[in-house]
Amino acid sequence: MVRGKNIVLGVTGSVAIYKACDIVRRLQDRGFQVTVVMTREAAEFIKPALFRSLTGNNVFCGLFDTPEAWEIEHVSLAEKADLLLVAPATANIIAKISSGICDDLLSCVACATKAPVLICPAMNKNMFKNRITQDNIKKLKSLGYKFVEPREGRLACGSVGIGCLADVENIVEEAKKILS
Q: Which pairing describes strands 151-154 and 160-164: parallel, antiparallel, or unpaired?
């Protein structure tokens, strides 16, 4: 039973961010509660107000933003999560999580959570195939992090190759499987 489970959706600065809106809706359709944490770069693509409208919840962006209620947000969000879903996940956030770097709200939540973490990469094919990125992914997988691999398709740069965010339905089904 997944009804009422809390998913913290980490959204990063990728052109694939527009699919995060569909991810939110489909997760809600399956009974999940969704709270969004955006990186500053993500907020350059889509304003937090859109996710606030979709989820009915506050959207969290900055590590030092003034909170609505006094909480240590990265800790409270980490504890609230039954699943941390990062979609789209850039090479940058994958590297931060892999290295334990905590310099923004999302990377702090990822470090503080005891919940399962599901990462859905979306980036240029050369960035995805880069040995460092692949080593970071391999390391995270060895530590129990789950991934929904990107697919081949037309990338933001115009070329075709691996790096497109996985189909939304595949992401939602994997989240459901992890929480069932």
A: antiparallel
- Count the neighbouring beta carbons within 10 Å of the beta carbon of residue 143: 10
Give the whole-angstrom CA distance, residue 179 versus residue 49. 28
Residue positions counted in the chain: 180
pLDDT for 129-169, tens place per residue?
999 999 999 999 999 999 999 999 888 877 888 989 999 99
Cα separation of 74 and 63, whole Å?
A: 8
Which structure tokens are listed for 2? 């997944």
Which CATH number fits the domain 6-179, given the four candidates 3.30.565.10, 3.40.50.720, 3.40.50.1950, 3.40.50.150?
A: 3.40.50.1950
pLDDT over 80 at 82, yes or no: yes
Two tokens at 148? 């929904």
Specify whether the CB–CB gap between 40 and 104 falls below 8 A: yes
- pLDDT per residue over 47-66, tens digit each? 999 999 999 999 999 876 65
* Of 21, 120, 157, 164, catalytic: 157
Strand ranges across the sheet with 117-121 = 59-60, 33-38, 6-11, 83-89, 117-121, 146-147
* Residue labelled with tokens 């189909």: 167
Is 21 one of the annotated active-site residues of the chain?
no
